[in-house]
Amino acid sequence: MKPKFRFALTLLFILSISSNIYSQFTSIGIKSGFNLSKLDYKSDLKGYDFSYKTGINAGLLIEYKLSNSLFLHSELIYSMRGTEYGAEGKTISGYLVPNHKFVQRHNYLEIPFFIQYNFPMSYF
């Protein structure tokens, strides 16, 4: 098994075990998942076949309680995205293109902030 794949698999296993640390006003946790992304360059690369690229996302989250139903929620997420494209003996712009394949990888670090409101549940 390749070292990068083994590392990614181990990291995904560790991060998939959701754990939260709670205090009276703050909760901290981890999150992970898979991405399926596809970039499509309609004007620049006409004639190429684009396919989906799989990746992982993982990160930390924190939630701060402002009141009984209002929370400030933030995350720090690493996300792998990209695409795969190529041409297999196609004619593009009048030229015969030999078989070839390209892989684009984009790594993102996202820091979203949310204000979360929980509606009170009424009992029937």
What do these coordinates show?
The protein has 124 residues and is mostly beta strands. The chain has one helix and nine strands, in the order αβββββββββ. It has one helix at 3-16; strands at 20-22, 26-37, 49-51, 53-65, 70-87, 91-92, 95-96, 100-110, 113-117. The strands form two sheets. Strands 1, 2, 3, 4, 5, 8 and 9 form a seven-stranded antiparallel β-sheet that branches. It has a two-stranded antiparallel ribbon with strand order 6-7. The relative contact order is 0.19. The model has no long low-confidence stretch (mean pLDDT 76).
SSE layout:
Layout lengths: L2 H14 L3 E3 L3 E12 L11 E3 L1 E13 L4 E18 L3 E2 L2 E2 L3 E11 L2 E5 L7
Structure class: mainly beta
Helix percentage range:
10-25%
Our measurement of the CA-to-CA distance between the termini, rounded to an integer number of angstroms, reads 56 Å
Question: What's the shape?
Answer: elongated
**H-E order:** HEEEEEEEEE
Largest sheet descriptor: 7 strands, antiparallel
Number of strands: 9
Portion in strands: over 45%
Stretches where pLDDT falls below 50 for ≥5 residues?
none
Q: Count of helices?
A: 1
* Overall average residue pLDDT: 76
Cα Rg: 21 Å
